Amino acid sequence: MSWKTREQMEADEQRVLAPFAQKSGDSRGRKYPQLPHAYRTEFQRDRARLIHARAFRRLEYKTQVFLNGTGDHLRTRLTHTIEVASISRTIARALSLNEDLAEAIALAHDLGHPPFGHSGEEILAECMQGHGGFEHNQQSLRVVDLLEEVYPGFPGLNLTFEVRGGIQKHQAFYDPPEPGAAKYRCPSLEAQIANLADEITYYSHDLDDAVDFEILSSDQLEEVSVWRSNHAAVSARYPDAREPELHKLIIRDIIDVQVRDVITSSAESIDRAGVQTADEVRRQERPLICYSEHLLRANRELRRFLYKNVYFHPRVSEVNRRACGMLRAVFDAYVLSPDLLGEAAARRIEAEGLHRTVCDYIAGMTDRYLMEEYGRLVQRSAA
Ligand code: MG
Questions:
Q1: How far is ligand 1, taken at its centre, from the CA of residue 78, in Å?
Q2: 195 CA to centre of ligand 1 in angstroms
Q3: How far apart are the CA of 139 and the centre of ligand 1, in A?
Q4: What is the pTM of this model?
Q5: Which domains does the chain show, CATH number per domain?
Q6: Cα 80 to middle of ligand 1, angstroms
Q7: What are the pLDDT digits (tens) for 183-237?
Q8: Nearest to residue 211, comparing CAs of 177, 249, 180?
C-alpha cells in the first residue's frame, strides 16, 4: 500500500475542517525556519516536541492541588494535562477544528508551573518582586522558547506561531509574527478550546479528588448547583447507585454536561459572528468558544466553592504553605551562592540576570527535587 504524505494530510485538513479552523498548511511557521516533514504536519511535530520535552516529563512529579505524593491516585500536573488534552480533542473534533493544534496547546499549557501548585506560584512571584515577577503562562512560553535545549543552532523547541499563541493564555493582546502588524485580540479557536478545557478539567477533577481525599461532605456538595443538578440526573438514571460509584458517575456527568454546553454554545457564537477564516477569529473582540450564560454563572459559583472548601482547606493549604517555606529558602540559597546552580542555568546568568535564572531553575523543579535541594542546601548548612 502507499503511505500518506504531509501534503496529503494538509489537503485532508482543507477538505474536512471548518473554514475558520487553523490549518497546519497555513501555519505562519517557526522563528528558526526548518524544512517540512515528510509524513507529519507542523502541529503534529509540535505535539511530539512537547511530549519529548524534559519539562513535560517533570509534570509527573509536580503538584496539581494535593501535594505530589499525598495519594497515588490523586491528579498530578501530568495527568491533569492529559485530561485537558483529551477534552480539547473532543471539543475540537465536534466543531470541525484542528485537533492536533488544540492537543499541542493543551499539552504545553502547564509546562511553566512551578512545584507546589498555586501556592508555589504565589511564593515565586513574591521572590521575583522588583525583578520582573512570575506568572506561569509566561513561564510556559519561556520553557518552550528558551529553557528546553535540544537543537544545536537555537534555543527552545522552536514551536509554530500558532502553538506559541495558544500558550500566551492571559496575554491581553497577541502578537502576529510579522513586524509592525496590528496585535490580535484573541488566539485561535483551538487555543480557546484548550483554555476552557483546562477549566472543565480542573473543576471536575478537583471535586473528584476532594471527595476521594475526604475533605468534602455530601451536604457541602449539595450547596453547589453544578453538583446538585448532575446528582439529580444520575439518581434518576441509577436509583441504586451508592458510593464509591455514585460520585464517579456524577463527575462523569459534570464533564459531559460542560463539554456539550461548550460545543453547542460555541457553535452558535461562531455562527453569530459569521467568521470565515482563522484570522478573522483572531480579530474578534472576545473569544467565540464559550459556555452558555447559565453554565457560566453556575461555574462561577463552583469556582468560589472550590477556593473556599478545597484550595484553602487546611489539609491542602497548610501542607502547601510548609512546602513553600522550603521554596523560598532554596531561592535565597541560590541567590546567595549562584555557584550552587546547575551548569546550564549558570550559563544563563549573564544574559538573563541572577534572579531570573534562579527563578527559571526553581520553576523547572519537581516537588520532590525541591525538597531534596532544601535538605542539601538549607538543612545541612544549618546543621
Ligand atoms: Mg491547567
A1: 10
A2: 8
A3: 13
A4: 0.95
A5: 6-317 (1.10.3210.10), 318-382 (no CATH)
A6: 7
A7: 888 999 999 999 999 999 999 999 999 998 899 998 999 999 999 999 999 999 9
A8: 249
